[in-house]
Design a protein that fits this description.
The chain is an alpha/beta fold. The protein has 2 domains: 142 residues, Aspartate Aminotransferase, domain 1, CATH 3.90.1150; 277 residues, Aspartate Aminotransferase, domain 2 (3-Layer(aba) Sandwich), CATH 3.40.640.10. It has 15 helices and 16 strands. Strands 4-11-10-9-8-5-6 form a 7-stranded mixed sheet, sandwiched between helices. The structure holds pyridoxal-5'-phosphate. Pyridoxal-5'-phosphate (PLP) binds next to helix 5.
């Protein structure tokens, strides 16, 4: 990488209102990323950082992959855009076939969206359309879970359960959403893998069925592992129990695999890793290695069939879609990613590196401000002891780690650690060493 990165701060930082950012704080001391290659980033001060969270869980194959860049460039030269309603192009069908080879059970019907949020919103709409098609249009309720993150449009925010996101928009959220409790128990401290206790938390769904009428519930949506809140791994048997209850009450089970999809757990999807097949599954992020926005919804064949059978031939069956539903560059990127998954046996590579990563992650438990660590596969969460208000310790630790040369995202006081699958052991070592330095520096700064 070139070293001419200093003084790259734009003339004005005022106009750009940044997402999920403390704008006031950032604009006093900006952090600008100028280059990305492999597992490394470079910032405007010319410092190299190791990427410890694959961006936002989205770049598991590393930055600057030439195969994906070439695929996008070639696609742009031949077909840059084709409006996606009542017509199509070959690549999107080829991609759907390839995706369906990895999805569990018969989740072989593939709908394209723009991102994770729109994938979740689409899953909500498909659930409603399916029940309506079966003559059960009264099923309007959705069951989400506390501490879930499903995205930020109204549908995804409504079924999500991160307090600040929900509280801020309570007045405009979807009616009829009920939340199960999250799965984090007091005795789940410093557990790598699935906690042995807590399966009974799935019975919240049964309780909600009793309280609100199972016949009114369209779907239950969960992340197999809640990612954005800092890796909450499901207790042993928890997802199986949800599956049983959904079957008992004809409720659709939606797995939001936007983070857990495409190898993060060591299997293609959390569904296979935990041995539970949902009815609908969402994906995004790693589908294009994060390079272009994309979302995918996979549905069981009977859902697709029911919705199509309910409409006369020639009518639009599902009144839903986006200008950018599966546009050529997203599809080209996703196809190139599929090639790399196969060629480099990526899911197995992630699986093989998991225990080394988990050992490194949990070696940080002795640092005094580390309150808890959770992890599974190539994902982990480190809770930093709360300061005077939630989120303060997380942001300060993030900044100390940024200065120590390790880049990731903090949500509240949880540090989100999700290395790329192309990491070698030396990269994992570097991530852990720099996390130790950054977290320790934060801890020392508190004492001074
Ligand atoms: C599980 C999950 N679902 C949905 C989303 C929303 O995805 P996007 O930001 O692409 O809209 C996210 C984003 O982090 C996520 O983690």
């Amino acid at each position: 990488m070139s070293s001419e990165n200093k003084n790259k701060i734009p003339n004005s930082l005022n106009e750009h209102w940044m997402p999920f950012t403390s704008n006031k704080d950032f604009k006093e001391k900006p952090r600008l990323i100028t280059e990305a290659k492999g597992v490394y980033l470079k910032n405007h001060e010319g410092n190299t950082q190791i990427d410890a969270s694959s961006g936002l869980f989205c770049n598991p194959l590393g930055h600057g992959r030439i195969e994906i860049i070439n695929a996008i460039t070639n696609q742009l030269k031949t077909l840059d855009y084709a409006q996606p309603f009542q017509q199509g192009f070959g690549g999107s069908f080829e991609l759907a076939t390839r995706i369906s080879k990895h999805t569990p059970g018969n989740l072989n019907r593939i709908f394209y969206t723009i991102c994770g949020s729109t994938a979740v919103e689409t899953a909500i709409k498909i659930s409603v359309a399916y029940h309506k098609a079966r003559g059960e249009g009264q099923r309007f309720r959705f069951v989400g879970r506390e501490r879930a993150y499903h995205g930020m449009n109204i549908g995804a925010t409504s079924v999500g359960g991160m307090i600040n996101n929900v509280k801020a928009y309570a007045s405009v959220l979807m009616p009829g959403v009920v939340h199960m409790r999250h799965t984090h128990l007091e005795d789940h401290k410093f557990i790598s893998g699935q906690p042995e206790t807590g399966v009974e938390l799935a019975d919240d769904l049964e309780r909600i069925c009793s309280n609100f009428g199972a016949e009114n519930i369209a779907a239950c949506i969960v992340e197999p592992i809640a990612g954005s809140t800092g890796t909450l791994v499901p207790p042993v048997g928890y997802l199986q129990r949800l599956r049983e209850l959904c079957d008992k009450h004809n409720i659709l089970l939606i797995f939001d695999e936007v983070i857990t999809g495409w190898g993060r757990t060591g299997s293609a999807f959390g569904a296979q890793e935990f041995g539970v097949t949902p009815d609908i599954m969402t994906m995004a992020k790693a589908t294009t290695n994060g390079i272009v926005p994309f979302g995918v919804v996979a549905c069981k064949e009977e859902i697709y069939d029911a919705v199509l059978d309910a409409s006369p031939k020639g009518a639009v069956e599902l009144f839903h879609g986006y200008t950018y539903s599966g546009i050529p560059i997203s599809v080209a990127a996703a196809l190139a990613v599929q090639d790399i998954f196969e060629k480099e046996d990526i899911f197995n590579r992630a699986k093989e590196m998991s225990s080394y990563f988990q050992d490194g992650l949990f070696s940080l438990k002795d640092i005094d401000v580390v309150e808890n660590i959770r992890g599974y596969g190539m994902m982990g969460g480190i809770d930093i002891r709360k300061d005077t208000r939630p989120g303060k310790a997380g942001l300060e630790t993030f900044k100390h780690c940024y200065d120590a040369g390790v880049n990731f995202k903090a949500t509240g006081d949880a540090l989100i650690i999700a290395p790329m699958f192309i990491c070698e052991k030396k990269h994992i070592d570097e991530i852990i060493e720099k996390l130790r330095t950054g977290i320790t520096n934060y801890s020392r700064s508190k004492k001074n």
